[in-house]
């Protein structure tokens, strides 16, 4: 899978998406700056920390949720009881704002700008701004939206939270029916905010990869980050080529997606840990390597004279010990040595060589 000039499936590090989402609204309020300025600040810090892409959310509350839509998140973390009420607080941005942020991001950083569209209008105005479309888990059965996105002919990142394999398969078929060349990443996701670590089920990444081997596999995470970012490390080890996680500059902010988001330090920790894993992974074909040469020679054992052996004496098993270093006849050749004759005296503890037999 390619996004812009990046081949996301042939890298030591996964393609990492910092989902700013709508968290810049709260950052703006906290720092008393404009929402666009807050968005740019978050883009800058995400890029400096080492992500590959930043992602926002493009929606209007009116087209997304009815006024009777109940919350599906942890209301102890986000107390708003209605989806419509929550989304209404964060739907001020439209085409003009995203165009400004996308252009600013491209001119200042080597980073991809993405946003998740939740309606046809957003799909259309994002078309000139994003190199790929992200589809939220909740829209995996929204075939009209999937078809509209697929017709744009761009790579698609499809989250699969709360879906069956059959539902994933049907969504893939819908996309395939509308696109000549499907460039698709299927992203394991658990639709729980926040996701308890025991519910992450990262083994499902491998199942998705087996079920849809022709497509790229990724992971969209909602587990609160631990100090070592082990959830994302584990997802990468399980085969996720694309990682998406909510991003914030302040995890202590109440509401929305700050409470399970990563910050710039978390991004650096994750990248550093993966770099260490890559360093320790090394080659995939077993063979002795250069630093083992002395160990191979001196830590292995040789056949050694257990006693003095006289000239012309036939060597028995009792004449032989097995000791380090490995500079003489290998112990594997013991049966080839027993029964041979010593052409000259051999001192006890002398390492046996073939020209001594």
TrEMBL record:
A Pfam family it matches: NeuB
SMART domains in the record: SAF
AFP-like domain sequence ranges: 302-357
PROSITE patterns, sorted: AFP_LIKE
InterPro entries in UniProt: AFP_Neu5c_C_sf, Aldolase_TIM, PseI-like, PseI/NeuA/B-like_N, SAF, SAF_AFP_Neu5Ac, SAF_PseI/NeuA/NeuB
GO biological process: carbohydrate biosynthetic process
Highest taxon, organism lineage: Archaea
Organism lineage string: Archaea, Methanobacteriati, Methanobacteriota, Stenosarchaea group, Halobacteria
Protein name: N-acetylneuraminate synthase
SUPFAM superfamilies per the UniProt record, alphabetical: AFP III-like domain, Aldolase
GO MF term (any one): N-acylneuraminate-9-phosphate synthase activity
